[in-house]
Specification:
The N terminus is likely disordered. The protein starts with 7 loop residues before the first helix and ends with a helix. It is mainly alpha-helical. The protein has 22 helices and no strands. Helix 9 packs antiparallel against helix 10 and helix 10 runs parallel beside helix 12. The chain is elongated and about 90 Å long.
Length: 442
C-alpha cells in the first residue's frame, strides 16, 4: 500500500543534506547530529519506526550534554512504545532518567516520567500510573515548561476516564487544552480531541463524539500523523458500532487495520481486532468474532498486555455463550476475571458481571442471572456507562420474563428502550422488540 501521508520530501531533504555534509572536509558533526535527530522525528511520525530508531542511535554517538541525551532516549522510548514493545520503551526511559539523576526540577525528567506512567495506564495499572503522573507534575512545576505540564494533565485525565470519573477527566483535559491552544501544539490537540470524542461516546452523546473524532481526524491528516490516524479510524469504528451502523464501522476499522499493519504497530493491530470482534458480536456473527479474538490473544500474550488479554477473554466467553457453548463461556469469563482482577477498571468489571449473567440466563438459572445483571447495572449507572446500562436492563427484562414476572420484565425493557432510543441504536431496539413479543404471546 502506498503511504498517503508520507513525509518523503522532508526525508529526502535531510538525507541529501547529510550526504553533502559527509562529503565536505569541514567538521559538520554537530549539523549531522541535528539532521539525524530531525530524520528520527519525521520517520517516527511517518510510521517508519526502525528507520527512526537508527537515526536516533546515530545522534547518541556524538551528543554530550545529559539533558540532550535524555531527550533522545525518551524519543527512542516513544518509538518502541508505538511499536508495542513496552519493555524496550521502559528501558530507554530508565536510561534517560539516569542521565538526569540529581535534578529535582526538570521538564525532560517530567516528560519521561509521564511517558512511563502512560505505559502503566495502557496496561490497566491505574494506581501506579497516577503515582508516576503526580510525580511528573511535581517535577515540572516551577520549570516554566507549561507544554510538558499540559501533557501530564492530559495523561491524568486519561486515567480518570478509565475509572469513569468523567468530570475529573474533563477538568484535567480542559487545563491541558488551554495550554496546548496557547502554545499552538496542534499534534497534541488532535490527540486531545480524540479523548473528548471517546468520553462523549461513553456518555451516549453521539453528535458531540462524532464532532470531536472528525476534528481529530482532520488535524491528523493535515499533520500527516500516521500512527494517530489509526486511533481516529478505530474510534470512529467504535462509535458507528454503538450506533448500529455496521457498514460504516467496518469501513473505519479496515482503514485503521490497514495503516496499523503497514507500519507494524503490533499493539494497535491487537486492539483493532478486538474492536472488530465487538462489532461482529453486535451483528451476531459469533464465529467471525472468535476468529478475530483468537488473533488478539496471541498478540496480547506476546506483548504482555494484561488489559487487552482480559477484554479478549471476556469477549470470547460472550461469543461462546451466544453459540450455546455454556461451559466454555463460563470458563472464559472466569479466566477473564482472574486475568483482569488487578485492573481496577469499572467498565471491565461491569462487563464481566454482565457476561456471567448471560451464561446463567442461557442456563435458565434466572435468580443468578438477575443478581449478576444488577451488579453490572449498579456500576454502569454510577459511572454513567449508558450502553452497558441499556444492555443490563434488556437482559434483566428477559430474565424476569423467564421467571414469569411480566411487570418487572416490562419495566426493565422500557428502560432499555429509553436508553437505546437516546443512543440512536436501532439494532439494540430491534433485539428488545423481539423480547417484548414474547410478553404478548398468550
Amino acid at each position: 500500500m502506498q503511504n498517503l501521508y508520507s513525509k518523503s520530501d522532508t526525508i529526502k531533504y535531510y538525507l541529501d543534506a547529510l550526504q553533502q555534509m559527509q562529503e565536505t572536509s569541514e567538521d559538520t558533526s554537530q549539523m549531522q547530529m541535528i539532521a539525524h535527530q530531525k530524520l528520527g522525528d519525521v520517520y517516527g511520525l511517518d510510521g517508519q519506526f526502525d528507520e527512526a530508531l537508527y537515526h536516533y542511535s546515530r545522534v547518541l554517538e556524538h551528543i554530550q550534554p545529559s539533558q540532550s541525551k535524555a531527550l533522545v532516549f525518551r524519543k527512542m522510548g516513544e518509538i518502541y512504545q508505538k511499536k508495542g514493545d513496552n519493555a524496550s520503551a521502559l528501558k530507554q526511559y530508565q536510561v534517560g532518567l539516569a542521565e538526569l539523576a540529581g535534578k529535582k526540577k526538570s521538564s525532560e525528567a517530567a516528560q519521561i516520567l509521564t511517558d512511563i506512567g502512560y505505559i502503566y495506564y495502557l496496561d490497566g495499572k491505574y494506581q501506579e500510573a497516577i503515582k508516576i503522573h503526580t510525580n511528573a507534575l511535581e517535577t515540572v512545576e516551577g520549570t516554566g515548561d507549561y507544554y510538558v505540564q499540559a501533557i501530564v494533565y492530559k495523561n491524568l485525565g486519561n486515567v480518570m476516564y478509565e475509572w469513569a470519573k468523567f468530570d475529573q477527566s474533563i477538568e484535567y483535559w480542559e487545563k491541558s487544552r488551554e495550554i496546548f491552544e496557547r502554545v499552538n501544539a496542534n499534534a497534541d490537540l488532535a490527540k486531545l480531541y480524540n479523548n473528548f470524542g471517546e468520553l462523549y461516546m461513553k456518555q451516549g452523546d453521539n453528535d458531540k463524539s462524532l464532532f470531536y473524532f472528525q476534528k481529530s481526524l482532520r488535524e491528523k491528516e493535515k499533520l500527516g500523523d500516521v500512527d494517530g490516524l489509526i486511533t481516529s479510524y478505530d474510534n470512529s469504528g467504535k462509535l458507528y458500532r454503538s450506533m448500529g451502523e455496521f457498514d460504516k464501522s467496518l469501513k473505519s476499522y479496515k482503514k485503521a487495520l490497514e495503516i496499523a499493519e503497514q507500519i507494524g504497530s503490533v499493539r494497535k493491530i491487537g486492539i483493532i481486532n478486538n474492536n472488530l470482534a465487538s462489532m461482529y458480536l453486535s451483528r451476531n456473527e459469533f464465529k467471525k468474532a472468535i476468529e478475530h479474538l483468537e488473533k488478539c490473544l496471541l498478540i496480547f500474550e506476546k506483548i504482555d498486555l494484561t488489559k487487552g488479554l482480559a477484554y479478549s477473554l471476556a469477549n470470547i466467553g460472550y461469543a461462546h455463550c451466544e453459540l450455546g457453548n455454556l461451559d466454555e463461556a463460563m470458563d472464559y469469563q472466569n479466566k477473564a476475571l482472574e486475568t483482569g482482577k488487578e485492573l481496577n477498571d469499572p467498565y471491565f468489571v461491569s462487563g464481566i458481571y454482565h457476561g456471567i449473567g448471560k451464561v446463567y440466563l442461557k442456563k435458565q438459572d434466572y435468580d443468578e442471572a438477575i443478581d449478576c445483571f444488577y451488579k453490572s447495572l449498579k456500576i454502569s449507572e454510577e459511572k454513567r456507562l449508558w450502553e452497558t446500562c441499556g444492555e443490563s436492563h434488556r437482559d434483566l427484562g428477559e430474565a424476569y420474563l423467564g421467571k414469569g414476572n411480566i411487570e418487572e420484565a416490562q419495566m426493565h425493557l422500557n428502560k432499555a428502550i429509553e436508553i437505546f432510543e437516546k443512543l440512536g441504536n436501532e439494532v439494540e431496539l430491534e433485539k428488545i422488540r423481539g423480547i417484548s413479543l414474547k410478553i404478548k404471546k398468550p
